[in-house]
Amino acid sequence: MSRIERKILFAIGLTVFLTLGGSIFFAQGALREVYRVGVNERFGQELVHGVEARRGQLVALRESSEQVADAIGWAVEAEVSEKDSRRALEALLVELLDRYPDVKSVRVVEGDRLYAAASREPEPNGDALRATIRSRDATARGKKLRVEVEVVVPEMYFQRLQEAGEVADVYSRLQRESASVSDVYVWVFGVLVFLVIVVAFLIGAIASRRVTRRVTVLAEATRRVGAGDLTVSLPTGATDEVTELTQAFNDMVRDLRDSRTRIEYLQKIGAWQDFARRLAHEIKNPLTPIQLAAQEMDETYTGEDEGYREKLEHARAIIEEEVATLRRLVGEFSAFAKLPRADLSPADLCELIQSIQDSVPAILEDIGVDGPAPVEVRVSCATRPMHVRMDPMMLRRGFDNILRNAIQAVYRAKPTGGGQVLLRAYSVENSAFIEVLDNGPGIARENWDRVFDPYYTTKVEGTGLGLAIVKKVVLEHGGEVSLDDAPEGGARFRIRLPLIGSS
Ligand SMILES: Nc1ncnc2c1ncn2[C@@H]1O[C@H](COP(=O)(O)OP(=O)(O)OP(=O)(O)O)[C@@H](O)[C@H]1O
Ligand SMILES: [Mg+2]
User: Fold this and answer.
1) Is residue 161 part of a domain?
2) Domain termination residue (choose one: 283, 313, 338)
3) Using CA positions, which residue lies closest to atom 8 of ligand 1?
4) Does 483 lie in the same domain as 463?
5) Of 357, 380, 417, 463, which is most buried by a Cβ count within 10 Å?
6) Do residue 381 and residue 333 come from a single domain?
7) How far does the centroid of ligand 2 lie from the alpha carbon of residue 220, in Å?
């Protein structure tokens, strides 16, 4: 896992943890609050009071039924004491039933024997009733009697008491458990948070890996470039900031590569210029003594041998001719050695092209083309003006060299006519292009690089410096020169120069 990946995952984890952790904290508080409102002390007390009130009701009912039983017991005792008549007693019982509506039946028992009884069906009003029997002893006229009074109480009272008790029970249990219940919620929530963090981590890891892997590749490529490897080029896929970065990286590496090639070439040219200067110097010095010696040998001969005199004159002529050639070479070498650096200032390229057009006849004549007929030279500038930063003298010399080569090539191939050379300039986006095409023999592909090397020539009188100068000048203009085949079959040289602004 890369460092950036670790950082991204840490940020994801922290975000999830803070938001969810915070929400647990508040949720816990809210839950406690809810319990505090719902499960509060006074509410519980009210419930307990309700239960007690209902129990009190039942107790009152029981007491009143005890009193009724007492009253009936005493009434029976009084009646039996007064007159010993079962019939009268039964009439009393009926009367008592009328007086006490909660009494369902009264039995008066003597030992095992039923002495008197009365009962009635209570009026049905839908309520279930619970009956209880209360016994009272009554002693009269030597009889030991037991009065059994059956009292009914609506079942509803018991049920209500039971329900109230249950509610109170549930409530007190809730109250007891409220703390632990909210703890359970917090725990469940905590586990959920943990799971969410794990899932967020996994998703984050997968998503971030796609980005971080590319960043890692980029970092690795940067290291390689730092170590001097300028062949690095990274694939650019999706469209996002990393792609833009990768694209910018590729552009940067390409620029670095270009400028390194440029610097290397200019260094090489510099070394060749050094060499040319030394060579010119070494050759130039002995030339005058050689020429003088030849002249002297010829002029100081006073002998009569006509044949020998002729030989001397012939040798002198050859020596003078070769010395002249060497002088020309030395001149070109030292001119190459003294070639200044391009001194750039803004100017119109088209104007320069125009002036080349004007000097074409002079070039043709210099090369030895008889009249304009055998080689047709056309010069054109499509966009004007084309402002570039340039050294007009140097650039002109470069164009001149290319044009010269082209004319020489077509003239040698087609000395009787049909040779065509085209120099055209145009601009595309931020670049000016100058192309020189010919319909000569062209250049074999394997020599496309070598023709720009100094001293590479296929001509008897050539120095091989022409295209080296072209490349040096173009590179010093921040441009580049390339070579390929012209559609017409000859060579095509193309120079690119950066335009100033958009004109
Ligand atoms: N248009 C062209 N068609 C065919 N060959 C070419 C053309 N231009 C250049 N060359 C080849 O490239 C070689 C190098 O050219 P360059 O101008 O550097 O030197 P040169 O022309 O031989 O010598 P110099 O320029 O001193 O006369 C030439 O000798 C020739 O073989
Ligand atoms: Mg040349």
Assistant:
1) no
2) 338
3) 405
4) yes
5) 463
6) no
7) 45
Q: Is the same domain home to 282 and 410?
A: no
Where does ligand 1 bind, in terms of residues with CB under 6 Å?
A: 401, 405-406, 409, 438, 440-441, 443, 451, 456-459, 462-468, 490-491
Beta bridge pairs of residue 148:
107, 135
Distance CA 464, CA 332 (A): 11
Handedness of CA 74, 79, 84, 85 (dihedral sign): negative
**Residue with the larger pLDDT of the pair 241 and 183:** 241
Give dist(CA 87, CA 435) in Å, integer: 152
Which ligand is closest to the CA of 409, given by its number?
Answer: 1
Residue 127 CB contacts under 8 Å (≥ 6 apart), including other chains: 154, 155, 156
pLDDT digits (tens, 9 = 90+) for 425-469: 999 999 999 999 999 999 999 999 899 999 999 998 899 999 999
The pTM (predicted TM-score) of the whole model is 0.63
The residue range of the domain holding 409 is 342-498
CA-closest candidate to residue 165, choices 157, 176, 155: 157
| Count: domains in the chain | 2
Q: Do 316 and 448 have their domain in common?
A: no
Same-domain pairing of 373 and 473 = yes
pLDDT at 402: 97
Q: Which of 377, 457, 473, 474 to mutate to test the pocket of ligand 1 (most atoms within 8 A of CB)?
A: 457
